[in-house]
Write a structure and sequence with these properties.
Uridine Diphospho-n-acetylenolpyruvylglucosamine Reductase, domain 3, 9-stranded mixed beta sheet, 6-stranded antiparallel beta sheet
Length: about 500
């Protein structure tokens, strides 16, 4: 009886006062883990031990797959990485019944400044890459902003960033993949060598093989990003400016937007520079005591509403800019650590932020999971940029979740699950990101998400697959072009026995 009461008390604290556990346990544990990771990755890269170990680690994956082959093939396979270690707020239920393959591939293998490439293993994070490349004067062409996002997650799922209107999605800066296939063999593929497999890998969610390394495109980096903030109190004007900038012959290197209400928002444009100019101020937003970035942007908007109409210019250190949304997990952390942006907390403990998402998930009781399912939206809807204003209005009607993140990207008409539907060589899209608690009247989880999915499909859009997928299999196959994917699944030995199709990995019934 005492044990039951203790468990009930713990669950009550985790649900009603989660910040207590976060402050007393998760933040210190997160700090220790971050320190260890930074030191460990630095040492491994400097002594160049990772390339020597890579072959051995890939061989271990092969051996595990061959053991599955020698069995009766009674289950599918998946990586043994537990759901709580991933950045997605959802848990993969299939992990409990599939054959779990240990994939310990966490290192940067090689930086080639002449070829302008970096080769790394799939569990390398965005923060790890930016921290390694910056001293070399390099950066990834596309750097998804949360520093715990992994290369494998960005390849097998997808990644978008404010440079994507120029370079495309994360998959478009990938030059080569190495995989262990379901027959236990190791292959590398590129646009020139095994192109069918190369183009089928992105968005495949581990249903073709186990990713073991990726070669990525890098670009020259400078010290700062000159960011200009333009505030709007009219959605039509904001959407027009956003689209104009993305489609300009010589656009700024970085473009993003944040909507704070249906009618108010800020468009941000940026370019790398080596010096701080006289037209703006220096703003090192990555310091431990700095205010959350989205709150700073909101203040610019409020000043504009009060009558300060001129655009604001700031110079932000490059790596601070790349990871500007990490500290607050965009704006999700304000519901978990409500005092996290308080100036006293920031000065004393801001260096511990954010808590590791993996630890948050590890302490997520069933009650919290149900609460997220009923009263939380975590969606990225990808639509042609011409429909951006319509989408903002529609999602306000369905969800009323703010802030909304707007990130443009150029979708190339290449083979694969994600295809341009108007036949053009490329098309400009926008990621309309909805993270938070819905306030729309009549909101219901399933019906509301179904309405949003129907809207996206009806406007030639796509839904990112890390979120809640309520579509039927037939609707899913209409949204994504399965032609090449099905062909590759048919030709790879044991593939259908080894893995479900993409829908079988991402639909709502297998992820809670």
């Amino acid at each position: 009886m005492a044990a039951v009461q203790t468990e009930g008390l713990l669950e009550y604290i985790l649900v009603q006062h989660r910040w207590i556990i976060c402050l007393l346990a998760l933040l210190p544990m997160s700090g220790i883990w971050k320190f260890w990771s930074i030191v460990r990755n630095y040492v491994v890269f400097k002594i160049r031990s990772a390339p020597k170990m890579h072959h051995r680690k890939v061989k271990d994956v092969q051996n595990q797959v061959k053991q599955w082959l020698a069995s009766d093939h009674g289950t599918h396979m998946c990586t043994a990485r537990p759901s709580w270690e991933t950045m997605s707020f959802r848990h993969g239920l299939y992990k409990k019944t599939y054959t779990n393959i240990n994939v310990n591939l966490v290192d940067i293998l090689e930086v080639d400044a002449k070829k302008m490439t970096v080769r790394c293993e799939p569990l390398v994070t965005m923060g790890q890459l930016s921290r390694t490349l910056q001293p070399l004067g390099l950066a990834l062409a596309v750097v998804p902003e949360l520093d715990q996002l992994t290369v494998g997650g960005m390849v097998m799922g997808t990644g978008v960033e404010t440079s994507s209107h120029i370079f495309g999605l994360f998959q478009h800066i990938c030059l080569q993949y190495e995989l262990v296939l379901p027959d236990g063999s190791v292959v590398t593929c590129s646009k020139e060598d095994k192109p069918d497999l190369f183009y089928a890998v992105p968005w495949s969610h581990g249903t073709l093989g186990f990713l073991t390394s990726v070669v990525l495109q890098v670009v020259p980096a400078k010290k700062y990003v000159r960011v200009q903030y333009e505030s709007y109190t009219n959605t039509t004007e904001l959407a027009a400016r956003f689209s104009q900038e993305c489609n300009a012959p010589n656009p700024h290197q970085f473009v993003e937007g944040i909507m704070f209400t249906k009618d108010t928002g800020v468009v941000m444009t940026g370019d790398m520079v080596d010096e701080i100019g006289p037209d703006g101020i220096y703003n090192p937003i990555g310091r431990w005591y700095s205010e959350w970035f989205f709150k700073q942007v909101e203040r610019h908007l409020q000043n504009h509403i009060l009558g300060f109409k001129r655009p604001v210019v700031e110079y932000i250190p490059l790596r601070d800019y790349y990871h500007r949304h990490t500290k607050s997990l965009f704006w999700e952390i304000q519901d978990i650590v409500p005092f996290g942006n308080n100036i006293i907390f920031r000065f004393l403990l801001g260096w511990l932020m954010p808590p590791e998402v993996s630890l948050l998930k590890l302490t997520q009781f069933e009650a919290i999971t149900k609460l997220y399912e009923k009263a939380h939206v975590f969606q990225d809807m990808l639509l042609p940029i011409d429909h951006m204003e319509t989408a903002i209005n529609k999602f306000h009607e369905i969800f009323e979740v703010y802030p909304i993140w707007l990130c443009p990207f150029r979708l190339r008409n290449e083979p694969g699950l994600l295809r341009v539907k108007n036949g053009a060589r490329s098309q400009m899209y926008v990621d309309v990101s909805l993270y938070g608690v819905p306030k729309a009247k009549g909101y219901e989880t399933v019906p509301s998400h179904r309405r949003a999915e129907e809207f996206v499909a009806g406007h030639n859009g796509f839904q990112m697959l890390h979120a809640d997928i309520f579509t039927t299999r037939e609707e899913f196959r209409r949204m994504f072009d399965h032609t090449l994917y099905d062909k590759v699944r048919e030709t790879l030995p044991y593939c259908k026995e080894a893995f479900p199709d993409v829908y079988g990995k991402v639909n709502r019934s297998v992820r809670k």
